[in-house]
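Entry type: protein chain
Record version: 2
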Amino acid sequence: MSNISLRALVVDDDPSWLELIAEILEEVGYLVERAASLEQAQSLLKRPFHLAVVDLSLDTYDHHNQEGLKILEEIHHLYPDCATILLSGYATVEIAVSVIKDLGGYTCLRKEVFRRSEFRTLASRLLEQTLMAEQLAGAKMDTRRPKPEESLAHSTILVVEDDAGWRDLLEEILLDAGYSVRVCTGYGDAQGILRRERFSLVILDLNLRGNLLESPRMLKGESLDQLEGFRLLASARASGAQIIVISGLSSPNIIDKMFKKGKIFAYLEKHSFERRGFLQTVREAILMGGRSDDLSSLTEREREVLLLLAQGLTNREIAETLVISNNTVKRHLKSIFAKLNIHTRSAAVAKVTGLEK
């Protein structure tokens, strides 16, 4: 056991939440200080902390109160190595992005979906990481931004996200981790890029228009084809890339159908986004590559033909688009059918879209 004592700060005006979080952190092994207001927290910041869990609103009767951000800002300025977590029932996606991007936050957690066991696991992991860093005397380690292996550093990742805050955040995290990144903002841009370029990984948001709510049909996963991000899956799969979805849509039905029909590698929810977990998922996806996907056996030209076929084009239209002859298209289709062990155009489309039974 280490003799190093790690200090944690918990700030929440709700006594129940204050004691719950403090109790979990003490079980894990932290020495915990408690504060119920901005002033109390500021008085405790005369000494450094290794972890801080801060509520956004520190006034029970004012839901617009955001004094928690002031505390996070002070911690970021005074103790940049302190891992900070925003825990709130009122934080918007914009606030969450700002905390992670501008204030160096580790993650943001929503009270309405809080799970004691999950938080305990997170706290334990942070404790272990900090102890390792503290024990490496004189070593300068950034435990939040692990670098990829040399073989992964050359991987190119496409990020498709219409929200500027999330787009900048994902690009920054990936660039800092050593990856090559290409970003685009919508369906049209992404379709063109996926036709012209090859990527190891595609990270996309399901809702690229920002105005679709989780309607009853959407909650059941019955209207996925309305989402532009879902319609991009065929192009991403045809390119041979692994796919990670990052979305604000959190319906279990949507998530289940994305794995079953979309054949994605991972589905990350924006409300519980966490930097280290995101980078670990990215690394695992790239390491997997196309090993389990038979589309990876296709040549670049065959993938282009298959993608256009999946979009409903006839042989003649495919030939005109790629500036090749009809006979060449037929030869490519024959090769595609053989490699995928299929016999019909509809089966080829199903391979790309993930709709095969």
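Comment: Strands lie at 7-11, 31-35, 51-55, 83-88, 107-110, 156-160, 180-184, 201-204, 242-247, 266-269.
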